[in-house]
Amino acid sequence: MDNPTGLRLWIEGARLRTLPAAIAPVAVGTGAAAFDDGAIWWKALLALGVSLALQVGVNYANDYSDGIKGTDEDRVGPLRLVGSGLVAPARVKAAALAFLGLGALFGLALAATSSWWLVLVGAVAILAAWGYTGGSRPYGYRALGEVSVFVFFGLVAVLGTTFTQLGGINGVSVAGAIGVGSLACAILVANNLRDIPTDSVTGKRTLAVVMGDARTRLLYVVLMVVAFVLVVAWCVTQTPWAVLALIGLPPALRATAVVRGGGAGPQLIPVLKDTGVAELLYAIGLTAAFVIATV
Question: Does the residue 191 lie in any domain?
């Protein structure tokens, strides 16, 4: 198939399949605020703007940094702008900085209407977005990528969304942050599992490279189990409506079957999509449960 051009090329580079990892934490954080009758929907939209802009920004930043380091020259998976040679590195870098800047503007608006200490949190998040594969010592090359995803697309995104609306956090937001963070982390685990052969050659020491194939597959399964065990806990301790989060179980089981069955290379590409869909459906179901519980 011919390579995409123009706008389609940039959309491909934005990696839209990763956007559930940006939408899910904002949804759950807002649902947790609604659970205590504190949801403020315009703040939820601002938080969503922050999350989406940072996600696209980090995708372009990773494309740029991996591309100039040569780690995307021989890979399995979706097209990379710099690694494919289709877009000049400077243009991808500019796109990354533009989206990170847009996220910063949304974040400033949210901080101005909530708490100014959130500016510090946002600054750390932007530095983490760039430092994942950028700079002279990228932490994504030192087996810390999964930790970062869990922290920023789980704990920070969910708890931050709840805090901006509720003025604090609650128990369901903490548990929701762990569940969503686990699923977001699973997306990266599957991605890095697929890339073990090429990352090993290029010197990119992801957690998957360090742990090896078998233990990386086990980690993926554990993350899935953690997320859905929490659903049972919510049903028992908070509201039986939490069972709605199980709408994310079918794609999760489908993806887990491929990982446990030894799928490799191109076989793992659908796993990324199914894991992202599982996270998004999980978040939608959980958010609906928290809102319904207050009616």
Answer: yes
